[in-house]
Amino acid sequence: MATKREKRDPYLWEALISILGLIVFISLAILRYETDPHVPILIGVLVAAVIGLRAGFGWKAIETGMLNGITNSLQALVILLIIGILIGVWILSGVVPTLLYYGLKILHPTIFLPAALIICSITSLATGSSWGTSGTIGIALIGIGEGLGFPLPVVAGTVLSGAYFGDKMSPLSDTTNMAPAMVGTDLYTHIKHMTYTTGVSYGLTLIINIVLGFFLGGGEASLDSVNQILSGIQAQFSINPLLLLPPAIVMALAFRKIPAVPGIVIGIMTAGILGTILQGNTFGSLLSAAYGGYTSTSGVEAVDNLLTKGGLESMMYTVSLVICAMMFGGIMEKTNQLRVVVSVILKKAQTTGSLVTATILTAIGSNLILCDQYMSIVMTGKMYAQSYTDKRLHPKNLSRAIEDSATVTANLVPWNSGGAYQAATLGVPTIAYLPFNFFCWLTPIVSIVYGWFNITIDPLDEEAASSEEVTA
């Protein structure tokens, strides 16, 4: 009779097989065969499960890990589905077309990029949501940018730079609250400490976008295309300032700390009512747009490409991708495979600079492997908290390093829930907007430089140190 294998931590080489397996299969699918990553991720799930079984974990434990991973993503999936509905209803009701119309009338090509960056920054700072910002204001700016003749990857990168600035700095953001909670510091100490690195990366991003605006900002051809889009919008929709009310309501509710789901639903309902009054929509047409999205038939290609989108159905690809990815992340967490890799890294991190670098690279690696920024924040915080205390470093250094990496790089990974959502929402592939999302890849670089040169790396004060020791 076969004996039950004793449970142990996986060996390093076993954990690396799971990680490299996932990377290889996804890379082959996307780069070699130009196909979707869902099934390759499931193959990675199989490899991780086999490694877990080899390490003595029972199938029940592995299955629990998968289900826990999916459970952790349910809130994001619900928001994703509701945003799909919002996009469809907002287009049908004329909200998005109205935002596009007024935006095209006001924004001049030479100031568009820095203006878009600042608009998204303020919106996200006020709401605490990068997803909400890109799903509302971001969609409108994509359309305006296209009308002004800007490449869509550049516009998407600018939108996300602003959106993730607000996400990581807003006291209303869940990631901004989660990071200090994971490491044992308070929210406003964390935010203040982030201003040192974030200020530099944001300043550089703003300068780059000002320069890009002068080089890419339109000419007569761009203005001609703007006029075509304006005509195409007016041919299908009644433009009315009242249609600016739904996004204003969503932002106001978020600012008052109303949870995302009811806030977005109220925005959908408000748009539906206004669309019925101003556009003559029926309840049936609203239901159709909510599920299947809106199909534009203006005859103007730019308008039709821009406004044919949305609906719950349009998010199913992304939802299935997130579920597959979270299954893999759940197994990696449950069977301690990621923990084994990080323990080896910690042995090499002897200086402050190397510890900060290891923290940032681990968070980025977690976004690649665990496929979710929340799991990345939790895992990195748990793994490195004791190391910062041992080196007599204030926990705010750790929370800053986590936010400077985990929060801002999730949208740079195509199979991460953040990257998948932003690509689906903005209609621009992750790989295409990545080079132009300056804030999100400059921030971890700036943070690493600060670590190596000991810039604003604060020691653990005596009172905090005593508190840490009592807690331990």
Topology of this protein?
Layout: H1 12-32, H2 38-54, H3 59-72, H4 74-92, H5 95-106, H6 109-127, H7 130-147, H8 152-169, H9 174-183, H10 187-216, H11 220-236, H12 245-255, H13 260-278, H14 283-292, H15 301-307, H16 316-334, H17 337-348, H18 352-369, H19 373-390, H20 395-409, H21 417-426, H22 430-433, H23 438-452, H24 462-471
Helix pairs in contact: 1-2, 1-17, 2-16, 3-16, 4-13, 4-14, 5-7, 5-11, 6-7, 6-8, 6-10, 7-8, 7-21, 8-10, 8-20, 9-19, 9-20, 10-20, 10-23, 12-13, 16-21, 17-18, 17-19, 18-19, 18-20, 18-23, 19-20, 20-23
Annotation keywords:
single chain, about 475 residues, about 0% strand, globular
Explained architecture:
With 472 residues, the protein is mainly α. It has a domain at 75-315. It has helices at residues 12-32, 38-54, 59-72, 74-92, 95-106, 109-127, 130-147, 152-169, 174-183, 187-216, 220-236, 245-255, 260-278, 283-292, 301-307, 316-334, 337-348, 352-369, 373-390, 395-409, 417-426, 430-433, 438-452, 462-471. The longest helix has 30 residues, at 187-216. It is globular, with a radius of gyration of 23 Å.
